[in-house]
Amino acid sequence: MRLAISATTYRMVLLLRDSHQIQSLVIVTPWWIRSQVLVHTKTPIVMDFPGGKVAFTPEIHFISESNEERVPCYRVLDDNGQQLTNSQFVPVSKEIAVKMYSDMVTLQMMDNIFYEAQRQGRLSFYATAFGEEAINIASAAALSPDDVIFPQYREPGVLLWRGFTLQEFANQCFGNKSDYGKGRQMPVHYGSNKLNYFTVSATIAYSLLTQLLPNAVGAAYSLKMDEKDACAVTFFGDGGSSEGDFHAALNFAAVMEAPVLFICRNNGWAISTPTSDQFRSDGVVVKGRAYGIRSIRVDGNDALAMYSAVHEAREMAIREHRPILIEALTYRVGHHSTSDDSTRYRSADEIEWWNKARNPLSRFRTWVESNGWWSDEAESDLRSKIKKEMLEAIRVAEKTEKPNLNHMFSDVYDVPPLNLREQELLVRQAIKSHPQDYPSDVPL
Amino acid sequence: MASLLGRFCRKLVVPGSAHGSRMISTTACDSEAVKSLNLYSAINQALHIALETDPRSYVFGEDVGFGGVFRCTTGLAERFGKNRVFNTPLCEQGIVGFGIGLAAMGNRAVVEIQFADYIYPAFDQIVNEAAKFRYRSGNQFNCGGLTIRAPYGAVGHGGHYHSQSPEAFFCHVPGIKVVIPRSPREAKGLLLSSIRDPNPVVFFEPKWLYRQAVEEVPEHDYMIPLSQAEVIREGNDITLVGWGAQLTVMEQACLDAEKEGISCELIDLKTLLPWDKETVEASVKKTGRLLISHEAPVTGGFGAEISATILERCFLKLEAPVSRVCGLDTPFPLVFEPFYMPTKNKASSSSSLSSPLKKKHYLIMGLHVWCRYWMQSSPLLITSHSICFFR
Questions:
Q1: What keywords is this UniProt entry annotated with (chain A) (predicted)?
Q2: A255·B89 Cβ contact <8 A
Q3: Which of A34, A79, A115, A313 has a CA-to-CA distance to A63 between 20 and 30 Å?
Q4: Are A290 and A322 part of one and the same domain?
């Protein structure tokens, strides 16, 4: 629209200009008029709302519920463990690569042996991480020991990488007096303050999976305020991403600018619930953007890809004070736990295929061997060593006595209050009167 | 009744601060500077002191940046910076979860939940994480630096969602502490104790008293011990136990009862979990009667725990059944609030307070009924005696 206005309304024009309604402003002064201003105004396409400017559109258009194409998945190795051409990845030294592979084997064997122990009735419960060894070990390898971990329950490999011994794992599973948790929780609820690995929270039978996620955000904020060169890292599964805590945590992490890595082990199953019954989005990775969080989808069975993704994510998180969401696509080869028989809801063929065709150990082994860093001999040496260590660890853990009864009452508070001291006396009296009703392996 | 009192008295006489015998348990010295403050100002002072004395302490929640909807966090963000005093997104489970994480790293996290009525989304975090953090880790980790503050209780016009007293839910959770102050001076000392206690604490503030209660509050840094009840009024005939704003009502009931010659002993529990059984027990052994009063609904309320415990410990010393004068078993109503509330009249007319029979008569009547019962005489006779018994 072209307007001619007099100089006396020039101030109004300036106001219009400042409101960005004007495309161009031309001052014309023919001799018979003191001044004349020609104003081109443009159709307003931007308006201010709380939260910032948004452009207008005259069309009624709904954003599609999904992108046309799914978010691509980053990988470095193909299914056979051959390095893909043009693949970008963070180089890994021989030492790190060999440790990564060895720890993946150790994790797998540990899981096998503990699982069998449960089946033999020597353990009350166990949950394996079969199929997810690369996620466990490679992510741990890419982190520093100062990064604090808030695990779910399928990440014991992170502890293993950091130096938790097979004996320490066994002690917790058997709930003996050497268990750092003092026999209070079910097996696989590991925790180690010296390794910066917060104690596993929920019992697996319930859907209380992601409570630690918002805790991780608070911890990350603390690290940022203390200016530590460290981040918080938290793990959860595809099922866990449906919990309210996931959404609360991601939103908080973005707003608080907390250096936290959210690593989702999307293994296709939440006990018996497939992802098609869990969400209708393109997995978990697209949820990052909804909260303003940078995200990546990775092949969780590719150790090099996991290592690189976590490595880069960690740098970004600490340097830029931001959360990062990593969705690691993988498959839960084992049952949910020893209380589950997954052949009741999925085919044995499917499990078998994932175990063979996309096995994270065999893929990485191929790559490690291609560099001349591993051999069959090394493999068999390692396996026999681990088997021996594991069996010894179980033997010792089983024989070690349980924690003392007074540990039922300690640590509820920093100091036991009067009511707990009274209750302990009552319990001890009851045991004295009816010793046959109480387990004899708990020292009094 | 609470709103009625509020309308008639702009500045309430805080229980225990007026005439009458009172046992002082605060650490305030007479020579220290004091200032007349209302409840929210006292809490504000406590928060200022907490942030000042520990550089690794944080205050956050919805709207705390500008001072909070109840003004409790006024001036904190300006003084300590937006990194330590900040607004959070509107998400209680996130607020408490974030606070647990901060506390787990050795910081003090003072979290504000805008109304106790909205604390439930955070209940899972409080029960399953905060309360068990130390225990499940074998004391390798703890989140003792966490304090959750929430305004609770009737305000005169709050209705369902601005008046709740949810303390009973939390008193059932081993591993946390539940603290409720009755007045500005108590609030400041108890809040500082709660913040510095090495266990997670849920701190309920009686919102009705934010402006209404005014008291001389010492300006220095002082703490009032947790899990110690206080006898704020001594008496011989009956023990009354309560907490928070309800003590104001109960003190009025005590004054009324005094006119009829009944000497009441009033106890402020202050900490509900773990609670000070010894003080209440000693008092009931002296008086022989107990009346508990709280705003929360009577069924399953914390009064039931006190009643059961005192019954276990003082049965033979009791001269009457334990009375509970509490809120009704309805959602907190708006128009019906004056009828819902445990008023001083309800307290006065409860069986424990209204019939202080002489001990001798009581014993004789009691014996009579027992004899009749065991001789299996006419039920009619027993009934008439029972009526006398419980008049």
A1: Oxidoreductase
A2: yes
A3: A313
A4: yes
